[in-house]
Amino acid sequence: MALLKGMTTYMGAQQAMSFRYDADLDVVTTEQQRLTLASSGTVSLARPGRIRATRSTGFSDVETVFDGSTFTLLGRKANVYMQVPFKGTIVALVDELKDKYRRPLPAADLLLPNAYAELTEGVTDVKDLGSGVIGGAECDHLAFRKKDVDFQIWIAQGKRPYPCRYEITSTTVPGSPRYSVQLSDFQTGSAAVGQSFTFVPPPGARAISKDELKTIKSMGELPTHFVQRGTP
């Protein structure tokens, strides 16, 4: 718990940071086959209220920009963007994206000031699994259990205890799907890259409404040939 506390304290103290990430999201078919969707992207943020994040997959290329007063979602494949006024902090934006738009930011659980409380709430078991190596960095490997999820985290050893890898397993969902995100090129302070939070539409980009956003297939969370259970 002390290692996790040290990581969340370090992350919460950084006023500016940037990193690249690779993420895997499992989906389970009705035949109980587990399939993995892979994506990559970048995140840069400046507390308390500016963030830019990208996510690229084989079926979508999306960028999120928040400058403290306006939230923008850009779909590069369709060359369209949606903007809505939104004033608040990154904490408020994370909740808005997750609850209203169903578009959680990558590694959001690790970026919030109250990350330690959120991660440890309901924990029933903790294991220190020793050292592991992620992207060439030696890490402390920890495993936690809650009622509905297991999660593991690999924390870089040394003076910069940032999260190198974070993995969540949904234990009550058939097939136990997992979500994992692996960080690389982690930078803080003046070394953080991409610290421009002004959105400039690409040439020819078209503004769309929130309702039209739902119809843009190349901005969805799943490939167009995937159909969620219970939908036509």
Describe this structure in words.
The protein has a twelve-stranded mixed beta sheet with strand order 7-8-9-10-11-1-2-3-4-5-6-12, covered by helices on one side. The protein is 16% helix and 43% strand. The mean pLDDT is 91. It starts with a helix and ends in a 19-residue tail after the last helix. The chain is an alpha+beta fold. It contains five helices and twelve strands. A hairpin with a 4-residue loop joins strand 3 and strand 4 (61-66).
Arithmetic mean of pLDDT: 91
Give the amount of beta strand, in percent: 35-45%
Helix-strand makeup class: alpha+beta
Give the biggest sheet. Answer: 12 strands, mixed
Number of strands: 12
Q: What Rg, in angstroms, do the CA atoms define?
A: 18 Å
Separation of the first and last Cα atoms: 45 Å
Please mark out the parts with pLDDT under 50 across 5 or more consecutive residues, or reply none. none
Number of H- or I-type helical stretches = 5
Across the major sheet, the strand order is 7-8-9-10-11-1-2-3-4-5-6-12
- Tell the overall outline: globular
Proportion in helices: 10-25%
SSE arrangement, N to C: HEEEEEEHHHEEEEEEH
Attribute tags:
16% helix, twelve-stranded mixed β-sheet, alpha+beta, 12 strands, globular, 232 residues, 5 helices
Give a quick precis of the structure:
The chain is α+β, with helices and mostly antiparallel strands. The chain has helices spanning 2-13, 90-99, 108-111, 115-120, 210-213; strands at residues 16-28, 34-46, 50-56, 61-66, 70-75, 80-85, 125-134, 137-145, 149-156, 163-170, 178-188, 206-207. The protein has a 12-stranded mixed beta sheet with strand order 7-8-9-10-11-1-2-3-4-5-6-12, with helices on one face.
